[in-house]
Write a structure and sequence with these properties.
With about 140 residues, this protein is mostly helical. Helix content is about 60%, strand content about 0%.
């Protein structure tokens, strides 16, 4: 998880992550779990199988793919714009925003709960979000 650039070139990003997690973390061991989705490589992110069974449905997977494409387009620069992007994608594809929000949270954090999703998406950045959404579209439960 650690890389030297976290202390140098990415220190502002690390501070942004910590600021996002501050209201949720009360103990250091909780910080480890909360920060994991931000530091782990995209291919190493573990998706909760129970959450996947509930939220990565056949109906929502193609919409996740559309959302990934949207994140590859002109970048939304703040959480409000990101929220609009997610909600408009759900609306244009005819699903409830809540269904897409839950699936997106699972896709990018591996978990069903996290800090505010739109802030998480902003901090992760468009490229990482798109990669994780793509990976979730093709997700199969671990045996």
């Amino acid at each position: 998880m650690w890389r030297d650039t976290l202390a140098d070139g990415e220190s502002a990003w690390v501070l942004d992550v910590l600021e996002l997690l501050k209201p949720r973390v009360k103990k250091i061991d909780h910080l480890v779990e909360e920060i994991r989705p931000f530091l782990v490589a995209d291919a190493e992110l573990t998706i909760d199988d129970a959450g996947a069974a509930k939220h990565l449905t056949a109906e929502v997977r193609p919409v996740l793919s559309s959302l990934a494409e949207a994140f590859r387009g002109p970048a939304a620069s703040d959480s409000v714009e990101i929220e609009k992007l997610v909600r408009s994608t759900a609306e244009s594809r005819g699903i409830k925003a809540a269904a897409l929000i839950h699936a997106t949270r699972l896709a990018v954090t591996g978990r069903t709960v996290s800090a505010g999703l739109f802030d998480v998406l902003r901090v992760l950045g468009a490229a990482r979000v798109a990669a994780r959404l793509d990976r979730a579209v093709n997700y199969t439960a671990r045996s």
